[in-house]
Write a structure and sequence with these properties.
Blueprint (H helix, E strand, L loop, with lengths): L28 E4 L5 E4 L7 E3 L8 E3 L9 E6 L3 E8 L4 E3 L13 E3 L2 E3 L4 E13 L5 E10 L6 E10 L8 E13 L6 E14 L9 E8 L2
Length: 224
């Protein structure tokens, strides 16, 4: 009677040494693909880290996203103007550049009243205006941030207000109004903004080339 032998092939624990493995590429890491087969992860670049690419996909070496604030910019009005009613601020804008004031990253661009962003992203935008009124009755002053997402139609996205409360006072009265938004700039060609002031009567909107009196701040918070 013939005897059948059943041989179970196998490799004992710790039997495969580095010398028995097939040659590879310096820096490659062995992983498994979606089918469970061994796969070599391509060598990354200096500074990259190994990250998960999700279920069913081998990990990969990737560059970490840049952290922190990558853009911060300030602009101000350099000359005072006396107005009444609603007026868009379309002149005398400059980047704040004195007394140690600085910026981070790329600058905003302005043409007339229209501010254009240097890149897409979420931006924190603030606008503050300083007002002065001589003798007269009580006056209100408003500030607005006007936004567009089609490079055409502008709407008031935020409003700030202040009131002169010393009616009949013969001296000059001062006050400031401010407001802010977080603006999702998904397209720099269509997503833009303007700044507007509005007063009940004749009021001075103050500006200065050496001091932030009426000014705007732009800070990029992150990717859209």
């Amino acid at each position: 009677m013939a005897i059948t032998r059943i041989i179970t092939p196998g490799v004992t624990d710790d039997a495969v040494t580095l010398a028995k493995m097939a040659p590879g590429t310096d820096g490659n890491i062995i992983s498994y693909d979606a089918s469970g087969n061994p796969v070599a992860i391509a060598t990354g670049n200096d500074g990259q880290v190994l990250t998960s690419t999700g279920a069913g996909s081998p990990p990969a070496f990737e560059t970490l996203p840049v952290g922190g604030i990558t853009m911060a910019d300030q602009w101000r009005i350099t000359a005072s103007a006396t107005d009444s009613g609603a007026d868009v601020l379309d002149a005398n804008w400059e980047r704040a550049d004195t007394d140690g004031l600085g910026q981070i990253g790329s600058a905003m661009a302005v043409s007339g009243a229209v501010f254009t962003f240097p890149s897409t992203g979420y931006y924190y935008v603030t606008f503050q205006a300083k007002f002065a009124q001589g003798s007269g009755d009580q006056r209100y002053c408003h500030v607005y941030i006007l936004t567009t997402t089609d490079n055409s139609s502008y709407d008031a996205a935020a409003e700030g207000s202040m009131w002169f409360t010393s009616a009949g006072d013969s001296g000059t009265k001062y006050g400031s109004a401010a407001t802010n938004i977080i603006f999702d700039v998904t397209n720099t060609s269509t997503h833009k903004l303007k700044f507007q002031r509005n007063s009940e009567g004749s009021v001075v909107t103050e500006g200065d080339s050496n001091n932030n009196l009426t000014f705007a701040t732009f800070i990029r918070l992150g990717d859209t």
